[in-house]
Amino acid sequence: MNAISECSKTTREGEQPAASVAPRSNLKHDAEGYTLKVEMPGVTKAGVDITVNEGKLLITGKRESVATNGRTVYSERPAAHYSRVFELDPSIDTERISAGIEQGLLTVKLHKAEAAKPRKIAVA
Fold it and tell me: pLDDT for 44-83, tens place per residue?
């Protein structure tokens, strides 16, 4: 079983459900934990929100439409709202989750708790 799995879309209390796009993602595992990469083209650091609550990782991103002078005749890059919710494995240390975004690719590091990492036992 993976350290995280996708949950159904949810909204925060009091929010109206909005049309959103589920961004594509990849998950890689190594000895230290997991690396989650999420594609959100056009989203900047200011447009990303990551929340951990009740064992779930909620990632949202907002791409604003580009303001231009004149009337837009045709556009293939409208504003977009991205949203994904993942259920976290209990082995993830939620206090050590870190994230960064570069050129629309969000990278989230999910470190394992020390107690969950394998360790070698010396035989006396």
Answer: 999 999 999 999 999 999 998 777 788 888 877 778 899 9
Torsion of CA 71, 76, 78, 84, to 10 degrees: 180
Of 19, 64, 18, 68, residue with least CA distance to 40:
64
Q: Which of 60, 47, 56 is nearest to 94 (CA)?
A: 56
Burial class (CB in 10 A: 0-12, 13-18, 19+), 12: exposed
Prediction pTM value = 0.75
pLDDT in tens, 80-93: 899 999 999 888 99
CA atoms of 30 and 35, how far apart (whole Å)? 8
SS3 45: helix
| Contact partners, residue 16, CB within 8 Å, separation at least 6 | none
- For the chain, helix, strand, coil in percent to 5 are 5, 45, 50
Residue 25's closest CA among 44, 47, 54, 2? 2
